[in-house]
């Protein structure tokens, strides 16, 4: 099943702040979420109903999956650190 991938305004802001190299690194994995949002490397976040994370090098892509609408919403794109999973 094909999913539509949308970027939340916060994720758009996160991506704009990254270097061009980082954006190129993240582009393909974000688009691939449309084909398989629950890939082998994706992990469900505990305590969250729909939230998943995908590790891409030093970055984490935090996203929600809405199966009923065939939609993936990317919430955050951040470098892994102490505050990565706060305020999801």
Describe the structure.
The protein is α+β, with helices and mostly antiparallel strands and 88 residues long. The protein has one domain (4-79): RelE-like (YaeB-like fold). 24% of the residues lie in helices and 34% in strands. The protein is built from two helices and five strands; from the N terminus they run E-H-H-E-E-E-E. It has a five-stranded mixed beta sheet with strand order 1-5-4-3-2. It is globular and about 35 Å long. The termini are far apart.
Highest-level CATH class:
Alpha Beta
Overall geometric form:
globular
The low-pLDDT segments are: none
Distance between the termini: 26 Å
What is the tally of beta strands?
5
Give the DSSP E fraction (strand runs of 2 or more residues): 25-35%
- Using only C-alpha atoms, the radius of gyration works out to 12 Å
The CATH superfamily turns out to be RelE-like
Helical/strand content category:
alpha+beta
> What share of the residues lie within helices?
10-25%
Sequence of secondary-structure elements: EHHEEEE
What would a concise description of this structure say?
This protein is an alpha+beta fold and 88 residues long.
Provide tags for this entry.
88 residues, alpha+beta, YaeB-like fold
Please write out the topology.
Layout (H helix, E strand, L loop, with lengths): L3 E4 L1 H8 L3 H13 L9 E3 L6 E6 L2 E8 L4 E9 L9
Parallel strand pairs: 1-5
Antiparallel strand pairs: 2-3, 3-4, 4-5
